Amino acid sequence: MDQIPLVDLAAAHAEIADEIRTGFDRVLARTAFVGGEEVAAFEREYAAFGGVAHCVGVANGTDAVELALRAVGVQAGDEVVLPANTFIATAGATARLGARPVLVDCLPDSYLIDPDAALAAVTAATRAVVPVHLYGLLAPVAGLAAALPSHVRVVEDAAQSQGATRDGRTPGSGGIAATSFYPGKNLGAYGDAGAVLTDDAELAATVRSLANHGSTVKYRHDIAGFNSRLDGLQAVVLRAKLARLGAWNQARRDAAVRYQELLADLAAAGRVVLPGVGEGEAHVWHLYVVRVPGADRDAVVGKLNAAGIGAGIHYPTPVHLTDAFAHLGHGRGSFPQAERAAEEILSLPLHPHLTADQQQRVVDALAGVLG
């Protein structure tokens, strides 16, 4: 029986292959390998899609987080508040610029940053809070930003939320956000790529300069920057996929609704806890994440994988329990909601080309594993 992948990049490529070849030919003919018109066009198009004034393409999502932090003035020695439940790159980007990650717990239902915990962690040394938009759902940025003292800025990690809104707000609107175009994202390149999104022209100019060796004019370097630029070939891929992203996100929403229906009996029996969507939240379902309380989650994932179901775990270890950030001094029990999520959650296959028959197979397999 055919495998059901967690993400089907081959199906996405098949849909745009001819367009990609034509676009690559344009880049090769112009030899515009770094920057160029394809990059400029993508930046305009993605800014319009995301409802912000400026999009600055960079080399990857981790760089995007660091560049956004630097743009709002975070420096070595400053504190940056971020959730323990996130991909390690959020903390890594903070540490790379010499700032100190200050971890807080997540909410028990959405697994997003706990706004009250974030506010409680703010000190005179805090310069930014980084709410992470997880699984396709936006964190409560507006309320958090309004409650923060004036010396603290919000920098959104929007790597998993391309096309999502909360109360009509998009990532970066009225502030600044970083996103990733890693291949598995809703909008994925054919390699590493990322962007910083903002309505603030000054912040956008700072990011663009920092990412280009501190330069806006060739061989004139006003600040010490580094090299993090989007290349023309990746921009071709991103433009082709962006033209389809609205439809692909809707296909993800449709698949999520099917999962909710197919998994209803398991949920009623308490075998799985399904994700929810609150009022005003437009989810784009980067991942479909369920909890399996009372089960050996790792064994469940292993059995699903053995049955050809590409289940995954996002994420198996909270930041504070990784060796990389053990020096922060948080032992097991420090962030109970993040730790519970790490032990119980699993991601089921979800992508725009997933069929209803495949979803039925996924649910049947999960029901069989859970007994």
From TrEMBL:
SUPFAM superfamilies: PLP-dependent transferases. The keyword Cytoplasm does not apply. This is dTDP-4-amino-4,6-dideoxygalactose transaminase. GO terms for biological process: polysaccharide biosynthetic process. Pfam families: DegT_DnrJ_EryC1. PANTHER family: 3-OXO-GLUCOSE-6-PHOSPHATE:GLUTAMATE AMINOTRANSFERASE, TRANSAMINASE. GO terms for molecular function: pyridoxal phosphate binding; transaminase activity. Coiled coil: none annotated. Keywords: Pyridoxal phosphate. CDD domains: AHBA_syn (cd00616).
